[in-house]
Amino acid sequence: MIQHRDLQRWYAVAIVESYRYASSTLNTGKQEIMTPPLSNLSAFLLHLNNSIYSMKNFYIILLCLLSCAIIITCSSDKKEKEITNLEELKTAQFAAISGTAVDQIVTARFPETTFSYYNSPIDACVAVQKGIEVVTAYDEPILRHILAQTPGLKILPQMISVDYYGMAVNKNNPQLKRSADSLLDAIQADGRYNKMMERWFSGNSATVEMPPIDWPGNNGVLKFGTSAITEPFAFYGPKQEIKGFDVEFVYLLAKSLDRKLEINDMEFGAIIPSLLSGKSDIIGACITITEERAKSVLFTKPYYKGGIAAVVRDFAPEAKSSRLSNLDDLKQRRIGVLIGSMQDHYVTNNFPEASVIRIDLPTDLATSLKQGQCDAILLNNVAGKFYMKQNHDFAFLQEVVTIDSFAFGFHLNNTRLRDEFNKFLKKIKKDGTYNEICRRWVDDPEAAKMPVIKNAGTKGTLRIGTTGESIPYSFVQDGNVVGLDVEFILRFAADQQLKPNIQIYNFPGLLTSVITGKTDIVGNCIMITEERAKQMAFSDAYFSSESGMIVMKENLADRNDSPKLKNDGSDISTATIGAMTGTTGEMFIRTEYPEAGLKCFDDIMDAVASLQAGKLDYVLTSYTTAIRVAGKNKKLIILPNRLIDEYAAIALPKDQPELLKKVNEILAQFKKDGTLDQIINRWIKPDSAGYQQVAIPKTTKGKPLVVAIAANREPMCFVSDNKITGLDCELIERIAHEIGRPVVYSDMKFSSLIAALGSGKADLVISNMSPTEERKKVVNFSDGYFMNPQVLMTVNTKAAGDGDHAGTSILADIKDSFHNNIIHEKRYLLLWNGLKVTFIISIMAALLGTILGGLICLMRMSKAKGLQLFAKVYIDLLRGIPQVVLLMLMFYVVFAPLDISGITVAIITFAMNFAAYVSEMFRTSIEGVNKGQTEAGIAMGFSKIKTFTYIILPQAIQRVLPVYKGEFIALVKMTAIVGYIAVQDLTKASDIIRSRTFDAFFPLVMIAIMYFALAWVLTYGLERIQIRFTPGRRGR
Prior knowledge:
The chain is of the alpha/beta class. The chain has 36 helices and 39 strands.
């Protein structure tokens, strides 16, 4: 059997080997950290038995390795290859989100991928940003919202999977589904749907106003379940109201049914159970329509097409002195093409050194150029000229590069249908219908209308496949799929008297559908290639078009640069301004300054990158975003002018209407007398200056006002000098003083705030929280107290000549990180206090758990079947419940009625869990002692108790201690989850520090070292106990 000491030796040697390879890499000047090759495994294993035997050496080596890791990471300056295409990730390791199906979706697309898991998409994105992970994947609209606040990342233009989102109702309520479907058809027909899409998916949904609730609601209540963290589908707005595309749709549905709308915010995993249990009538929150879900709920018609996107690091292209003048300038640039097209072959063969970005759809191709993901795109000129008309910043680098032909695809075995189509194509060319169709859709596709095509449909059905996303060939207009290709097929169906059945696919799925026989004919500007011709039967070419190389005008060699601007906002009418697509900022510039050069971006950090590269004069963005960006980059400044105003609120329990009334009255007074403005001005400033601390009147007597808060949201609420402070804190402390109650903060994770309020652990919540409709179902919200205006950000000309910090040594970097994360604001006290909390919880939980485990062990070994059954059920139950779930159940449910601290609950919970495991260890160790020793003790005159105490127990302790140590260390590490119940342990202290310094690496390394040191000390103590029970080792 492998002994514990052998495992320690082997692990130590593994560390030495890793250290040797890392050192070798550094010494040879290589850019990448190497790991021992698998080919050395045999030699490595032989080396294990001849290596380190001392625990002391083991821990010294591990500390050296951690130090080496710090140095390597701090000095890492390797130049990674930029990922531009999804196909480059076939064997990559993805950062997946725990509890989601993303890993399954990625595996279905790329079976050879591996995964590491994170708790949230934000954590995964930060890991990619810091270079810890290569790629992460999640829902595309939510990723865009995250990337707006996370610089240095980009979304690859190709989607991993394409999904359709819909609302869901109970299967017992088909009438509500029909009502929702009818409403969707109506708003698509009258144009309201397109307006909603423009408002909510424009890039700044926070500025969109929800329609007022002004109907009587005579037919009862429509209960809507959602998860208000899925912007732009459902989220909290600046005024703490739940809004979004899904929410507005349900508003319209409730109004059409004359029912009052009740919105309940909940965790995403709870919305379908809420529907099945009758707590919700309809649910919506970026819900993907799947076959599995459709077994238990009724889905409405899909209202949005999205999917899973990939996020990788964005390496800003190096500034180049020369602009683009001809195709030769693209030799080492990024060129976008349609995947598998003739343009793809052309670029691959003629630009071998270029980065070829392959994309499924022309729409996505144009978007990739606009967002700076490509330097140029090669696209057929019919589509290219349409996108150039929509985006005046596009221009041809060379108008004719290739000439391409398009055809319709059929199954290889269905040549009869293909031949019939070829005959039809010749007929319409001869009678002039062909030219009429081409003129209609090529000249002005947006103004074109699909003619009425009469079709008897008496000879069966024609299954038609298309994408609906490729203007002018196939796109959606007024809720119907129209376009050049679509009209050709519909006329062919009428000619054959076949009833058309249009099916929407993504482009790869479109080709697969006809190959597998799921469709009879497919059309979507499909180019004829040799590879495709082997898998499907092509019709005669029905359309030909030149393809041109399109670039941004600003990158052309003959571009006239704008004159030097003052950068004070006075030249805004003629300046080049960047804004988020579809936001109020974009509309403001278009309306108020029509002569300005407006450039729209889907990601604000793309706009900032353009600003830093000199392509923009200003960026128009929200106040708080600008502050954070400018605070990280001293070359950027925020102008004092607030161009547009856009609102946070306080959450209170439903059963506290009087407290809500008082809070609203005080807020109204603060707004009236200027107190609220003073608070905002103290904490949020355009120049990102230091915070202005003022004396806040406080009440020290009376019933405490327990405030749940997530103190990692600077400048709203954060920890400074070991105190919770910020705009939210000053506001609530002033409100509490007016009420006459002292404030007691309960710092916890943001996701636990509502739960704390609902369980009575807090009197109110303030943490820059928006009042979504879903949250309003379980809590009340005050009036809004904070407004987030739109401001201009520009380059600080005074700092323009300052060079970047270069040549800093590794030791200087470590010194700066140490000072910022440990010394500054006495942050070491946060770590010290967190360490004490972790130590107390670990020791007390272990002691209590050991006692409880002993009792459970006695019950398990009892001859009474009732006691045995109880012990077995206890052990199985505690082992089967995840520790974080058990912890939250104990805090928010079991002990909710009691005034008990989170530390006490943590000790009890961990002790219960610890007891379930060590009880079985105790039982095994006791049963491992030979029964003859018990008989011998009794024969010598000992009682059963004395025999157990003096003979059996010492041997059992000696046997159990090695495995007991491992379980005890696992308990210590398990305490890292206590932040969920408002306990500030070592891990929570790290989270607080990272929220202030934006350093994702150093605080984690320090915490790892502290956990290691704590585990070493505790393990050493247990070893001393073990020696006392090992006769051969006593006195060592």
